[in-house]
Design brief:
alpha+beta; Multidrug-efflux Transporter Regulator, Chain: A, Domain 2; 3 strands; Helix-turn-helix domain-containing protein; HTH_17; SinI_DNA-bd
Amino acid sequence: MVSRFLTLTDVTEILNVSMPQAYALVHNGDLRAMQIGGRGQWRISQDDLEEYIQRMYSETERRIRRGEREGSTPDKAAAER
């Protein structure tokens, strides 16, 4: 049976990111998650992770079309030109 929810460790493996990066995605609201149990363990639904991945693909495509550099905002990219 496939689990509906993933742990942060699962997310780090799927996205190939570090644990601090995964925590940051959750804490700044980029990746929807919930805490469960007395120890407040984080869980992320597979659907929410897939939505995040698709959103990042879309944002990356938009940035590439605009000619923006990685990590820059539209205002910074315009100023760099």
